[in-house]
Amino acid sequence: MFIDSASASTRARQGAVVAPGTARSLRPACAGRLTVLGGQAWITGTAAGDVFVGPGEWLAVPAGAHLVIEPASRAAPRPVRFVWTAATPCADAWTRLWQRRPAWLRVAAPAPCAG
Questions:
Q1: 73 lies in a domain?
Q2: Within a domain: residue 112?
Q3: pTM of the model
Q4: How many domains does the chain divide into?
Q5: What angle do CA 28, 33, 37 make, to 5 degrees?
Q6: H or E segment and range at residue 8
C-alpha cells in the first residue's frame, strides 16, 4: 500500500477501500500481510490461486507478488476495507533509506505567493 500524506497513521488504521464494481492492484516490493477489516475480498494472484478472505482474516504475501483485490459478492455488493502491513525488516529498511536521503530531496515548504 502506498501512503503519501500527513494522515498516514489515520489511513493505516482505517485501511484502504475497494468499492463494489472496482478492483485494486497491489504490487508490494516487500513481503507482508494483507488483513481484511470489512467486507468479503476476492483476491487473485496468490500462490494458491483465487482466495476469499473475510473480516479479521489475513493473507501472507511474498515480495514481488501481484494481487488483485475486489469485493467478492456481486449479488449484494459491499466495499472491502483492508490494510497492508510490510514485514518489519522491509519497513525498517525503507525508514533507514528515507532518513539517509540526499539534501536535494529534503525539500522545504514553498514560500507563499506574493500577490
A1: yes
A2: no
A3: 0.65
A4: 1
A5: 115
A6: helix 8-14
Instruction: Report the CATH number at residue 42.
Output: 2.60.120.10
By the 8 A CB rule, do 45 and 70 touch? no
In a domain, 1, yes or no: no
Task: Spell out the residues 6+ positions from residue 38 whose beta carbon is closer than 8 angstroms to its own.
Answer: 15, 55, 78, 79, 80, 81
Q: Bigger pLDDT: 111 or 55?
A: 55
Range of the domain at 40: 8-100
**In this structure, how many other beta carbons lie within 10 angstroms of the beta carbon of residue 93?**
14
Alpha carbon 53 to its chain centroid, in Å, reads 15
- Burial class of residue 8, CB neighbours in 10 A (0-12, 13-18, 19+): exposed
Per-residue model confidence as pLDDT tens digits over 28-85: 888 889 999 999 999 998 888 899 999 999 999 998 899 999 999 877 789 999 999 8
